[in-house]
């Protein structure tokens, strides 16, 4: 059982708050890939030592929060995560509201449609609806995380934030960010992307994560008017030619606005 403190490889005690933040980080990293995450990848992306990561993963597995797949030797979410998600789901009706929009988008465009949520300085993909077009992009899937502005969903959300918040986010960017995500995601490039997104009303990602894999996104606003989610479409480059982007963008914006209106209606409805 994971206690309130732990001891890293160096032997110095780790206080409770630090352990909690480390555990939360590991849970997020494991959840990036539904097929499982290798220990080496978790160690690399966590910045923690291998013994520390292994010990914390083992503690989480003992509590049922994670599982180690013996065949692939990868870590996955355990049954307790499923139970927690099931209990929490009724408090967050966005999935029920968004799924019909995703189906309409997938049917109308034949592309794969997604719902992503903002979590701090990242977006997390929550839902996917496959389109019927036989060639697909697999960059986006449930659980995958991207920094705000890197994918089309994150750019749509970033562009909808106030300038002061955008400035702070770009100012606080890790110096290694550009090294990880490329010059196409430098602060200057992101500012240009924000301007394009605000002018069009939707974001376009022209293969900036994986060459040939394009995406488009539109922000969904919570009842307070904050961009909290985004709808997006992904596919191969020939399906996102300039002459088709306006059509796809209009569909995305219409569905995003429909969800935003529904959220506001539900917020203002009298309690029963």
List the defining traits of the structure above.
272 residues, alpha+beta, 6-stranded antiparallel beta sheet, 3-stranded antiparallel beta sheet, 19% strand, disordered N terminus, IclR family transcriptional regulator, DNA-binding transcription factor activity, GAF-like_dom_sf
Shape: globular
Sheet bearing the most strands, described?
6 strands, antiparallel
Number of helices: 10
C-alpha-based Rg, rounded:
20 Å
Characterise the protein shown here:
The radius of gyration is 20 Å and the shape is globular. The chain has 10 helices and 9 strands. 31% of the residues are buried. The protein has helices spanning 16-30, 39-46, 50-62, 79-88, 94-109, 152-159, 163-171, 177-181, 187-200, 242-268; strands at residues 37-38, 66-69, 74-77, 112-119, 122-129, 145-147, 203-205, 213-221, 227-236. The protein folds into 2 domains: 16-84, Winged helix-like DNA-binding domain superfamily/Winged helix DNA-binding domain (Arc Repressor Mutant, subunit A, Orthogonal Bundle), CATH 1.10.10.10; 92-268, Beta-Lactamase, CATH 3.30.450. The strands form 2 sheets. Strands 6-5-4-9-8-7 form a 6-stranded antiparallel sheet, sandwiched between helices. By secondary structure, it is α+β, with helices and mostly antiparallel strands. The longest helix has 27 residues, at 242-268.
């Amino acid at each position: 059982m994971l206690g309130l403190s732990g001891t890293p490889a160096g032997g110095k005690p780790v206080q409770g708050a630090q352990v909690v933040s480390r555990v939360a980080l590991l849970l997020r990293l494991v959840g990036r890939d539904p097929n499982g995450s290798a220990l080496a990848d978790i160690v690399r992306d966590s910045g923690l030592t291998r013994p520390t990561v292994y010990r914390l993963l083992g503690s989480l597995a003992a509590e049922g929060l994670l599982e180690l797949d013996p065949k692939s030797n990868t870590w996955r979410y355990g049954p307790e995560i499923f139970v927690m998600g099931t209990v929490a789901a009724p408090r967050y009706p966005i999935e029920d509201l968004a799924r019909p929009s995703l189906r309409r988008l997938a049917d109308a465009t034949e592309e794969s449609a997604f719902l992503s949520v903002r979590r701090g300085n990242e977006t997390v993909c929550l839902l996917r609806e496959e389109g019927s077009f036989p060639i697909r992009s697999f960059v986006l899937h449930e659980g995958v995380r991207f920094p705000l502005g890197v994918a089309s969903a994150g750019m749509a959300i970033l562009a909808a934030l106030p300038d002061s918040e955008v400035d702070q986010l770009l100012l606080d960017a890790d110096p290694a960010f550009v090294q990880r995500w490329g010059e196409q995601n430098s602060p200057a490039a992101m500012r240009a992307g924000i301007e394009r997104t605000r002018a069009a009303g939707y974001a376009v990602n022209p293969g900036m994560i994986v060459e040939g894999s394009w995406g488009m996104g539109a922000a969904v606003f919570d009842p307070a008017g904050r961009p909290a989610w985004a709808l997006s479409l992904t596919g191969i480059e020939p399906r996102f030619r300039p002459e088709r982007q306006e059509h796809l963008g209009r569909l995305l914006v219409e569905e995003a606005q429909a969800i935003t209106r529904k959220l506001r209606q539900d917020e203002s409805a009298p309690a029963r």
